[in-house]
Design goal:
This protein is α/β, with parallel strands linked by helices. The protein has five helices and five strands, in the order βαβαβαβααβ.
Length: about 150
């Protein structure tokens, strides 16, 4: 399972697809919108829905649609070899839920971006790969994306 962010490098996708192909596995590419959440996380007295469907966030449609277009340009149309999922909530737990439901073998993520802005993002939001390593039972493969 490959976690993709807004500015994913093409090399990351190609390496993940090659690995999945070599292992004879289906590649699931996932984008998580951290600005949305599952309704079950609201206090019971405030909850307006009782399903596990995510709260609607129409603003997430744009980045998810753009990511899908970029993935299709690299991998072709989703189908037998790969698929694309859009999730909501905290990134690492959302990826964990998808991995469990999809029967994933491992997580594949890119290495951290370099630079001051990327460092500030990690300082404020935390590192996705570090959270996956701490919170999930599956192996986490970190693919270098530079050079």
């Amino acid at each position: 399972m490959l976690g993709v962010s807004w500015g994913f490098p093409e090399l990351l996708v190609r390496r993940a697809a090659d690995l999945a192909s070599d292992l004879g596995l289906h590649l699931v590419c996932a984008f998580v919108d951290p600005a949305s959440y599952l309704t079950e996380w609201e206090a019971a007295e405030l909850r307006t829905a009782h399903s596990m469907d995510p709260a609607v966030n129409e603003e997430a449609d744009f980045p998810a649609g753009q990511l899908l277009l970029r993935l299709e340009a690299i991998l072709g149309k989703p189908g037998e070899n790969w698929s694309f999922r859009v999730l909501n909530g905290d990134i690492a737990p959302a990826l964990g839920r998808l991995a469990e439901s999809a029967g994933a073998s491992m997580f594949i993520v890119g290495c951290p971006r370099s630079g001051v802005l990327a460092w500030m993002d990690r300082l404020i939001e935390g590192s996705v790969y570090a959270a996956l390593v701490r919170q999930q039972r599956l192996p986490v493969l970190i693919i270098p994306c530079d050079g």
